[in-house]
Amino acid sequence: xxxxxxxxTVFALVIPGETSAHRLDEYxxxxxxxxxxxxxxxxxxxxxxxxxxxxxxxxxDRDGDGTISPIEAGAYGQVVLSDLxxxxxxxxxxxxxxRVETPSIGEMRDGSGTIQVRAVGPVDAIGSxxxxxxFRNNHQPATSVYLANALxxxxxxxxxxxxxxxPRQQGVxxxxxxxPRWPGQLIWLVLGVAxxxxxxxxxxxxxxxxxxxxxx
Length: 216
What we know:
Elements: H1 9-14, E1 27-35, E2 39-48, H2 53-60, H3 70-82, E3 84-88, E4 91-92, E5 96-101, H4 105-109, E6 115-122, E7 129-137, E8 144-150, E9 158-165, E10 171-178, H5 182-202, E11 207-208, E12 214-215
Parallel strand pairs: 1-8
Antiparallel strand pairs: 1-2, 2-6, 3-4, 3-7, 5-6, 7-10, 9-10, 11-12
């Protein structure tokens, strides 16, 4: 079966010169999706350009003290999370924020600071089959450019077989296969049955004692 792999270098290839120059009037949002049988993990990196940064700083630094506290960072992470749509086989996936990391305000004003938002969503585990994951990023669409990719699965039971993006990469549909686990489960079942049979074969039978009781 054909496997589709996407390395981190894809981001640099899609937008040439991205790593060598600071953006000016765009909010770059790059999303990576990691798939395993029981969950989906999102990693969203948000880099505001120089002219966009002041507005983002204002949203982040709510008390205006010139620093971004963990509480303020978490609040912005929740804002981003509320603008993300994730569905598996047509059903919504509830996302939980797990981490937010923010650069210094100076780095953001310089156009080189990246906000990192991480979230995870549990999915119903299935024995095997084809699954369809739909993702869309609706955060700050007026000023943003987007990237979206599935990472190479670390779970050997999962294979990404295709990705379809809209022209802006604001949304992506990922199709992936979940392979059955029955060979391993069958081995353990056979071993369990064999162990039980051995136990009952060698277990001493109950015999009657002279006193009328039961001696084991």
